[in-house]
Every structure is written in structure tokens, then in C-alpha cells.
Write a structure and sequence with these properties.
31% of the residues lie in helices and 21% in strands. It has 15 helices and 17 strands. The two termini are 35 Å apart.
């Protein structure tokens, strides 16, 4: 492959070969993946990990259970989301990991999360449960916390990440990394500061810690596909959760609870969900796109309960060396589902998805990852991160997730506007989505974007 990383990608991006594979997979995979740092002598290190969770809804509770290694997962592929509960008989003995503080705007979410943790014998005291929009600041002020999990709606992620790094905490952030250009720039700043302070940032783009993807990507980077010609990726699925408005809820409360349907909070599903596939493409090409040109709209979502986001996007991304990537993402009931990435080169085709990774060559036998060696990537990303912290060499994925997030933002803005959007245009946009002040009360949201009239500023 002839591509080289652009300067922005090279600066601080977490390479796939720096992933920390769990010890059970080392014998089979270390020689092939050529990892320069593998957890071996440090595997027994049990430096304490004291977790503070910001955002205690379903995603946050699931993330903290994954970090504890105590989750059992129920996946709903058509809906594109998962729920988690405490695994039967889960034990944390000898791991020296515990949750000591929780923060969320809503007390009921904290209560549900506390109940899950109580099943594991963890009782979070009242004075370590913080509510309100500034509750996260109180959590970051707890000196014992050294591992923050940030799982609020994506709008809040850049500021919380930067503040956590300033407070001297390692932080795991869910994906995406933000919803607009100013947020992405802030996340990149947090990544640079984290490197200066030897702190870690790992993102919920868990495919970078899924062993099938790690091995497949190493082969691609070693030239198994030859020169990359083009690629296409999909997250086409059904409808997902929706929260109906209850009596007494203000505009702000309803939007926060139903956040997926408001661009200022979730970024629209091309950013919030499709970021997984776009991240794989950036990872494979070791670059970010230069330009996006797409179209999309809102056909199936006809009611105010669905906010103002689109329900389908189709985007062409232009990468360095003229490589074109064709992207689709759709959330519509009764439609054909497809969630995967295809990367086509002069020597063959690589296909990746949550359930399989294989390469079909133009000549010779195909390669397929042996799933018997696979681990739970939602837990593996935390295991890798904790191992890197205990080894004194914390992972920093801020730049990678920032660039994947901005890739989605480029696609969204092109489809919203009907215009081509270039990388620097999206990155340097001045419009910050969301209210100037966070308070419960009236909060009107804009109409559905109309291509030809909407403009990125």
C-alpha cells in the first residue's frame, strides 16, 4: 500500500500494533502482530484502579461493568445497541479494581447504576454520588480516582475529557469523540496534553481491540492486499431506542433522555453509530479523508419524538492517493441489515465485521480469523487500557477517535448541505452545537436540515 499518514494522523495516533493483547492470546498472535510492547512481565501488576463513572445510563453502566470484567451482554444486532447486566457469580477477587464515585445529571440513573454495583459488593456512598451538570467536576476532584469512564451523550465528551486530563486522570471515553469541529479540536488538545502528562485516553471504538480486527489489520498494513484501490463500509440497520416525553419534563430533560435524536447531543447516527466503520477505514488506510460528498434524508422518521436527525446517509469520501471510500448508514425498520467494511486492493479483498474477519485473495487460499481465540472486545479495550496504565505506558487514542469522529461529521455536513465538505473546513468550523448555558427549561431544536439551504459555518 502506498499511503502514508498525514501529519495530523501521525501526531499521537494510537497504532493498532500498540494494542495490548491479553496474555492468553500472546502465544498465538504475538509473532504475527509484531507488537513492540506486549504485557508479559507486567501482567501480574495489580496497581489499584479506582474508577469514577460520568454518565450512569445504560451505556455508562455497561462500560463500567466491562471495565470490572463483570458484565454479561445481550446484543440486539438489528437495533444496533446492547444492554448489560452483572454476570451470574461475577467475582472481582484479586483484580484490585473498584468503582468509587458516580456522576450523572439525573439521580434515577445513578440509583440504577448503584444497584448493579451493589450486586458486586460495591456500595457507593451518597457523598460520592454527584448530580447536575457540574457533578462531573465534583467527581474529578475526588483524589483517589485514577480511571474515569465518560459515557454521557457525545456533546459533553470533549470538555469532560480535557478536564479529566487537567485533573490528572486517565480516561476511557465512549464513541464518538464529539459532535462538531470545536469539540473535535478540544479532544485533540486533550490528547496532546495527555501525552505531556503521561496519561491515557482510550475510546469505545472497540474494534481496535478485537483480536480478529487486530490480526486482519496487521496483514493489511504488511501489504497482504497490495495497493488499496477503494473501500466501502456500512451500518445499515433497523430503528433503535426512543424515549417518549413524560409530563413535567422540560425541553432540556427530554432531549437529554432522548439524546440520540438531536444533532447537538449525538451528532446524528452517521457520527454516533457509523463512526465504528469509518474508524476501521481510517485505520486500514492509515489516513483520514480529504473530502466528503454525500446525500441523505429523513423518510421513515415522521414524528417529533424522533427529533430532527436523518434516517439515511450515503457518502463518498476521497482519501489520499485518490482512494475512494463509499459509505452507507441507515436506521429504518424492515430494511436489509449490513454492518461491515470491505477493503479492496490489487491482491484481494478484506472483509471485517463484528462476527468475522477474512481476506479473499485473487490467487491462493483465503485467510480467516479463528474465532476460538476471540475475546469480548468491550471488555478487552478496558483490559488493554488498564494493562498499559499499570505498565507505565498508557495508551492514547485521542487523535484516532477525533479523526474518525470528524470523518463522520464531514459526511453529515455534506449530506445536510448538499455540498462537498473538505477536511479543514469541517475541522475549523466555528459553529458549536448546543446551548450556551446548560439548564432545565425551554430548548427549541432546529428543523430537519434541508440540502441546498443548510450551510456549515
Amino acid at each position: 500500500m502506498n499511503h502514508t499518514r498525514t501529519p495530523s494522523m501521525a501526531e499521537g495516533s494510537a497504532l493498532p500494533r500498540r494494542s495490548f493483547l491479553k496474555a492468553s492470546a500472546l502465544a498465538a498472535g504475538a509473532a504475527l502482530t509484531k507488537l513492540p510492547f506486549v504485557v508479559t512481565s507486567h501482567a501480574a501488576n495489580d496497581d489499584p484502579i479506582r474508577i469514577g463513572l460520568i454518565g450512569c445510563g445504560g451505556r455508562g453502566t455497561g462500560a463500567v461493568l466491562d471495565a470490572l470484567g463483570a458484565a454479561t451482554k445481550v446484543i440486539y444486532p438489528a437495533a444496533g445497541y446492547h444492554t448489560e447486566d452483572v454476570a451470574e457469580g461475577a467475582s472481582l477477587a484479586g483484580r484490585n479494581i473498584e468503582v468509587i464515585a458516580l456522576a450523572d445529571v439525573f439521580p434515577d440513573r445513578i440509583a440504577r447504576c448503584r444497584e448493579q454495583l451493589r450486586k458486586l459488593g460495591m456500595r457507593i456512598p451518597d457523598d460520592h454520588c454527584f448530580t447536575g451538570f457540574d457533578g462531573y467536576r465534583q467527581l474529578l476532584a475526588v483524589p483517589e480516582i485514577n480511571y474515569v469512564i465518560q459515557a454521557t451523550p457525545p456533546h459533553f465528551r470533549p470538555q469532560h475529557t480535557l478536564d479529566a486530563i487537567k485533573a490528572g486522570k486517565h480516561i476511557f471515553i465512549e464513541k464518538p469523540g464529539g459532535v462538531d469541529g470545536p469539540g473535535v479540536r478540544m479532544l485533540m488538545e486533550a490528547g496532546r496534553l495527555a501525552r505531556e502528562k503521561n496519561l491515557g485516553i482510550v475510546a469505545g471504538t472497540q474494534r481496535r481491540h478485537q483480536l480478529g480486527y487486530v490480526e486482519q489489520m496487521q496483514r493489511i498494513h504488511d501489504g497482504a492486499l497490495g495497493d488499496i484501490l477503494y473501500a466501502h463500509c456500512y451500518w445499515n440497520g433497523g430503528v433503535i431506542w426512543v424515549i417518549e416525553r413524560e409530563p413535567g419534563w422540560s425541553d432540556m430533560e427530554w432531549q437529554l433522555r432522548n439524546w440520540n435524536y438531536f444533532t447537538w447531543l449525538g451528532g446524528d447516527h452517521i457520527v454516533e453509530q457509523h463512526v465504528h466503520n469509518l474508524d476501521v477505514i481510517n485505520w486500514a488506510l492509515q489516513a483520514h479523508p480529504l473530502k466528503a460528498y454525500g446525500m441523505g434524508g429523513r423518510q421513515a422518521r415522521e414524528h417529533p419524538i424522533h427529533g430532527h436527525i436523518f434516517d439515511h446517509f450515503a457518502t463518498a469520501f476521497e482519501y489520499p492517493n485518490g482512494v475512494m471510500v463509499f459509505s452507507q448508514t441507515r436506521q429504518m425498520a424492515g430494511t436489509e441489515g449490513r454492518v461491515e467494511e470491505n477493503i479492496i486492493g490489487t491482491k484481494g479483498r478484506a472483509v471485517g465485521s463484528f462476527t468475522q474477519n477474512f481476506i479473499r485473495f485473487n490467487e491462493g487460499r483465503p485467510w480467516r480469523y479463528n474465532k476460538r481465540e476471540e475475546t469480548n472486545p468491550y471488555q478487552q479495550e478496558h483490559q488493554d487500557f488498564i494493562a498499559s496504565i499499570r505498565a507505565g505506558n498508557p495508551l492514547n487514542e485521542a487523535q484516532a477517535v477525533a479523526e474518525s469522529t470528524l470523518t463522520g461529521i464531514m459526511g453529515r455536513e455534506s449530506c445536510y448541505s448538499g455540498q462537498s465538505i473538505e477536511w479543514d473546513q469541517a475541522l475549523n468550523a466555528t459553529t458549536r452545537l448546543g446551548p450556551e448555558k446548560y439548564e432545565f427549561g425551554p430548548l427549541p431544536f432546529p428543523a430537519v436540515a434541508k440540502p441546498g439551504e443548510y450551510r456549515l459555518v
